[in-house]
Write the structure tokens for this entry.
Amino acid sequence: MSGSSITGWGSALPEKVVTNADFEARLDTSDAWIVERTGIRERRIGGTTSSLAIEAGAAAITRAGLSPSDIDLLVLSTTTPDKAVPATSATVHAQLGCSGAAFDLNAACAGYVYALVTADAMLTARIGFDRALVIGSDTLSSITDFEDRSTAVLFADGAGAVVLEHRQDSEPLVLASDLGLDGSLLPILYCEHGGYLKMEGREVFRRAVRVTVDSAAKVIAQAGIAADEIALFVPHQANQRIIDAMIQRLGIPRERAVIVLDRTGNTSSASIPLALVEAADAGRLSEGDLVLFSGFGAGMTWASAVVRWHQ
Ligand SMILES: CC(C)(COP(=O)(O)OP(=O)(O)OC[C@H]1O[C@@H](n2cnc3c(N)ncnc32)[C@H](O)[C@@H]1OP(=O)(O)O)[C@@H](O)C(=O)NCCC(=O)NCCS
């Protein structure tokens, strides 16, 4: 048996805090509306996708007790690359001083789970990679129309990262995964080059609950476990009401869900690793714990995985 382990983690948030009161002063909205409909109280805005990715990636490498040159695979999940060409992972790879391969992956807000499953599969396939840095970094503020109250209050910036190390004697990291897409739902959430995010909020909400509940239930069944065996639930941080609906329908105890969106807003690829890093730093994870990840995003994409936490 061989598999990979999460041996390091780190995150990065811009310094600038934008509160609901800041929006109240500029738009026809209120703190009460935003909190009630989304759960978001404040968010961080600033930086570039590469600068946040570098900060989070460097912290994860340090935490793993490694040097950047020990990393031979870098997978960067992002929807907001710095440049059209080359991939933002090239900038991150060069500035951190990693070795080996690097590429970007875009599966919108489900991207981090896609990236984690992809990197783990590449390590366990034994095709020349031993240590992967898996980063989720997004600067959604760069594609958000701050005059549009229906999207401005939701989206923000950040990055989170983990280091995966392959070990010959390790048990598998990913016990079950489900990656999917329904391209017929593309029109409900998209952004043209040079434009801003366009979203049919109510429809995204309705579909998100349905696809993530189905996807999470599928991986729980595939892993052969019961929902109450999940020690930590790390959902995409888009809307508190979506997370509440998932918890209720899946039968996961509420206190096992990690919530950071009240302070971060929706940071797309960064949302799941930001939540994971906060939980790991707070000591909410023990050896052998089962962790459920579940995300959804534009496309419409979705991705869930059951992971066994071992260092
Ligand atoms: C966007 C979202 C918060 C809106 O909440 P909702 O309860 O669905 O609200 P609705 O879209 O039905 O809008 C209700 C009213 O609030 C208004 N509204 C929208 N944004 C507002 C804001 N920031 N402040 C005050 N009112 C607002 C709407 O204009 C609408 O007014 P109307 O009834 O006069 O037309 C919610 O639909 C949502 O979170 N959807 C999912 C979005 C998401 O997760 N996207 C990212 C995917 S990765």
